[in-house]
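Could someone model N-(3-carboxypropanoyl)-L-norvaline with this protein?
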Amino acid sequence: MNHYLSINDLDNLQNTVQEAIELKKQPLKFESLGKDKTICLLFFNNSLRTRLSTQKAAQNLGMNPIVMNFGAEGWQLEYEDGVIMNENKSEHVKEAAEVIAQYCDIVAIRAFASLTDKEKDLAEVVLNNFEKYAGIPVVNMESAVGHPLQALADAITLEENKVNHKPKVVLSWAPHPKALPHAVANSFVEMMQLQDADFVITHPEGYELDPEITKDSTIEYDQKKAFENADFVYVKNWSSFKEYGKVVNTDSNWMITGDKMRATNNGKFMHCLPVRRNVVVADEVIDSENSIVIEQANNRTYSAQIVLKKILENM
Ligand code: SN0
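Reply:
Sure, complex below.
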């Protein structure tokens, strides 16, 4: 593998999940693979899990990670061609990306959706420009459109926790005070489309994700109906796609409660974190034995590690 920009960059999801589960048993087995290799992690947005687990994954492979909070400490970058740069942007991505590539062998980037400019967000301007000008492998640590490291960790967690051969997995929207990106939900949907599962998406009207991503996945507007027989309930808030970046519903009836979870098939609760307690999910649910959010976060290390391993093996 050269770049990891979307879950579809994996040649085989099922095999990759199995390889990650093996790696988890012996995380230091390939500690020489990344010797003398450097990875730059660039953060244009906040992070806890992604930042620490990706560093940890790189270190497990013997790599040297360099981390930069680009959003707070980097120069403001210009991405358009041919502009007169006499305003607030100090450096063009052409130089920035090429310079960064002098210092490292792989670059990993977090750059959330603006949620104001749909066209630019869908064009993945930051990620694609780095890919174009850095000339080294690029890893997506949550872009405008996707969060494939999270989706791979979710696939590992589903595999480890599934009881039925073909589980019912529900992706449920939940309320949130802020407008959040679609990336986590998008990549979860793309990942589920590669799985042998009964997959249902539930959200209020007006919260349809990009139809180019959901394709023919089942959408059920009745959350109660969607939860019937669910083995896994994956919860995430996102803002409206149609009314791009807007919060069009804050109905607290969509929060995940103990009563809703009791009506599932002893369903496991999943969330990528960070999560707003008692807005998105009731304490009773996230604190229950059926909550596997910490396992999901733990699997972020092995998701990043298998991805970096595949890139290193290809260098
Ligand atoms: C991000 C998102 O894409 O939804 C990152 C998730 C991995 N989440 C947030 O920005 C939550 C912020 C908040 O204030 O709750």
